Every structure is written in structure tokens, then in C-alpha cells.
Amino acid sequence: NAGVTQTPKFQVLKTGQSMTLQCAQDMNHEYMSWYRQDPGMGLRLIHYSVGAGITDQGEVPNGYNVSRSTTEDFPLRLLSAAPSQTSVYFCASSYRQPDTQYFGPGTRLTVL
Amino acid sequence: GESVGLHLPTLSVQEGDNSIINCAYSNSASDYFIWYKQESGKGPQFIIDIRSNMDKRQGQRVTVLLNKTVKHLSLQIAATQPGDSAVYFCAENAGGTSYGKLTFGQGTILTVHP
């Protein structure tokens, strides 16, 4: 198993641009989530999904959209990038909730 | 505000010593707790978890203690090794309507000196 994969690993955007961060898992996990991690801080939950077709907001959802059309994929969309969205983004998945979440390697995003 | 681990403390130990990393939480409804290790440039890695109906759980070289009375969680690492150097995060799940949402603390930096 590849586990949780994320692409791209690094990304630089200009203010106002949009983009999609990709996340995929091959463990047949029902639960997937997106976090952001800012310097000196823990991870904050952006959005999560408890199964295909079901998503919900986390602690910091503004400026981000998600969808879950398949069990494997959970993309995160930035609608209009802002410098405040400069961060490292982690995707995670687990078999059920609450349960051990397996994290991807992260995407380091810079918004200029 | 943050409900878990409001500070980012550091802990420096010698190789072979035992390490204790602490975490305070404020939500008495939390029923599941996890410790993660994060090395530089990598995603968090699961270490050990504990449910609220337990006080102690042991893994390989690690032990987690839960004190629900004072809402305190600790991670003990035995015979700490240089490879244990990382940032350690505690996380809680509040259950109920928050089921599935993990709240992370800010982390503790552990440095192990050879």
C-alpha cells in the first residue's frame, strides 16, 4: 500500500489564484480529513469526510472547499488564494472514527 | 480557543534517559486521545492512543497516562534515543457531535543528545 499520498509537495501561488491540493489513500479508509499547520502551532482541521458523498466543516473551513466523490480521493480546493493561507497542508485518513489517523507527507503552500 | 496543550515547550534529554511529555486538555467530554510524533518535513506519525475508559496504556518503549480528574495526558518514552528527537503532539476527540474531529495541541519539541 502507498498509504496516503499528496500532490503537489510544494506550490507557490499569487493572491487570487485558485488551485486544488490532491489527496488519495489506498487503504479503503472511510474517514478522511484536511489539516493546516502553521509555524509553532499544532494542526487545525479544515474539512473532513466520513464517507463518499459526505463532508463537513472543521475548525477553519473558510476559503476552502472539498468534495468526496470516491472513497479514495479527497481534494481540497482553494477558491481565491490569500497570503493567510500560506501553510503546510496535511491530509489524513482512518478506517473509522475516532481511530488512528494516517497522515500524508504534506503540501507546502506559499501565497504571495 | 485551543482546548489542548496551549504552549510549545521544549524538552532536552540525554540518550538513554526516560522522557516525559505532558499535555493538558480542557474538554471533559473528550473520550479518545492520541499521541503523534512529527519529524522535520514529514507528516505526523501515530505513536499510541488511549480511550477515556483507561488510565494507562503501554506500547513499545512508550506509555501513555490519562488523568481525567485533572484533564492531563502524558507520554513516557523509555530509554530515549536520538531518533526520538521530534515534535510530539497530543490530540483529542470530543465524541458526540464532534465525533471524528481531532483537536491538536501545539506540540512539544523533544531533543535527545547523544
Question: What would you note in describing this structure?
Answer:
The complex is a heterodimer of chains A (112) and B (114). In chain A, strands 2, 4, 5, 6, 9, 10 and 11 form a 7-stranded mixed β-sheet that branches. The radius of gyration of chain A is 13 Å and the shape is globular. In chain A, a hairpin with a 7-residue loop joins strand 9 and strand 10 (102-103). Chain A has strands spanning 4-7, 10-13, 19-25, 31-37, 43-51, 54-57, 64-66, 76-78, 87-94, 102-103, 107-111. Chain A has no helices and 11 strands. Chain A has 112 residues and is mostly beta strands. In chain A, 0% of the residues lie in helices and 50% in strands. In chain B, 0% of the residues lie in helices and 50% in strands. In chain B, 35% of the residues are buried. Chain B is built from no helices and 10 strands. In chain B, strands 1, 3, 4, 8, 9 and 10 form a 6-stranded mixed β-sheet that branches. In chain B, strands 2-7-6-5 form a 4-stranded antiparallel β-sheet, with no helix packed on it. Chain B starts with 9 loop residues before the first strand and ends with a strand. Chain B is mainly beta and 114 residues long. Chain B has strands spanning 10-14, 19-24, 32-38, 45-51, 56-58, 62-67, 72-77, 86-93, 102-104, 108-113. The interface between A and B is medium-sized, with 26 and 28 residues.
Number of strands of chain B: 10
On the 0 to 100 scale, the average pLDDT of chain A is 93
Fraction of residues in β-strands of chain B? over 45%
What helical percentage do the residues of chain A reach? under 10%
Give the number of helices of chain B: 0
Helix content of chain B: under 10%
How many E strands of chain A?
Answer: 11
Helix and strand sequence of chain B: EEEEEEEEEE
Low-pLDDT runs of 5+ residues of chain B are none
CA radius of gyration of chain B is 14 Å
Question: Structural class, judged by helices and strands of chain B?
Answer: mainly beta
Number of helical regions of chain A: 0
Percent strand of chain A equals over 45%
Main sheet record of chain B? 6 strands, mixed
Structural class of chain A: mainly beta
* Coarse shape of chain B: globular
Largest sheet of chain A: 7 strands, mixed
| Largest interface (CB < 8 Å) | A-B, 26 and 28 residues
The helix-strand sequence of chain A is EEEEEEEEEEE
Low-confidence stretches of chain A: none
